[in-house]
């Protein structure tokens, strides 16, 4: 059993099944670059405080360079016998440079090492996802600007409620994704602290310089308690929670895209590259991408629940349970990033069918509230105005026409205060442009808000 780094204490080898059961190298090898970065920073610090020699450091740097090249070239041999990414790299380092490689692990444990690796890796993932989120918001705002005047029905309870501009509807998602970006940025602050130096759990007897390592690795701070540093994965949970919220928003958008693309609704068309056909029904063009995103949202929620549950029963400090933090976390990061890349592209390729939107907004008495507001401005109390318009809607329903189709005398029969200016109020354009306040749906507002998003993003 000489392969294991910890083998001397053991009298019999583990069975093959136990080996496979406990090994993580198949999935944690994707932390390799972070692991090497962490090791180089650790070695640099050990040399600076005189725990290893300058020659040891130079050897470690040379060895790690070669290992990086081997990994990048795909020639690095990952061994299940060596359990995880850390021991695989360390073993290869010793093979390449001898004793200096054996000194690298001085004052360090895999417990603080892995916690550092995950943070380094996750920090990069967050930065990449933030970039994609920004791209998505840019494309939403761009499309919103184009459709500041395009009108579609706004819904409550999935029933036509009031007309809104399509640009306004798109900007609602830009807002949601903006908050998502804030949450990721906020989580990043707590991720960006250095566990290394905590060693196995209690710290180390060597005169280490943790701030130096933190600086080298670009961490804003260190973890201030060694037990906490090696044991908690709350930072990963926070990321998974933020990712779950992004996906929740993506899923709502998906639901709308699917609905809008349904031939029954026909508000938009998605570019062919995001859809597939049916193997049996020749007429179909299915919105596979939004449907999959809606489905993958469930998996991302599951990963969050998995991590929360993983942590809840663990006494301090490190327990091997924590090795189970990785696959769900990796899956979440991959799903988030891929989804955002695809959605940014898909959104900018939405083909808007403005005529269908408009036709739908003309059904369902979407300007009924406008008529009530009109009567209020003529002096009626709102409740009476509401009642009067309800009568008007009934009349229209009986006749199969819209409010705007009622003649002035017909409207005046409902209430004497109604004058010829009422028809302006009953049009879709009149309805949306009257809502011209901050946060309102008026085309002018949409232009202002879309420009704001575009400007903020181009400056960041
Ligand atoms: N592969 C382990 C993990 O991912 C590294 C830490 C192992 N530490 C230990 N004491 N077994 O958590």
Structure description:
With 460 residues, the chain is mainly alpha-helical. The protein folds into three domains: 14-106, Orthogonal Bundle (Fumarase C, Chain B, domain 1), CATH 1.10.275; 111-206 and 218-359, Up-down Bundle (Fumarase C, Chain A, domain 2), CATH 1.20.200; 362-459, Orthogonal Bundle (Ribonucleotide Reductase Protein R1, domain 1). 63% of the residues lie in helices and 5% in strands. It is built from 20 helices and six strands. It has helices spanning 16-22, 25-28, 32-48, 54-73, 85-97, 99-103, 110-146, 166-191, 210-217, 226-231, 234-261, 288-312, 326-348, 354-361, 368-377, 382-399, 408-414, 422-426, 428-433, 443-459, and strands at 151-156, 159-165, 193-194, 221-222, 268-269, 351-352. The chain has a two-stranded antiparallel sheet with strand order 1-2. It has a two-stranded parallel sheet with strand order 3-4. Helix 9 (210-217) links the parallel strand 3 and strand 4 (221-222). Helix 3 (32-48) packs across helix 9. The radius of gyration is 30 Å and the shape is elongated. 41% of the residues are buried. The mean pLDDT is 95. Arginine is lined by residues 24, 28, 84, 110-111, 114, 318, 320, 322-323.
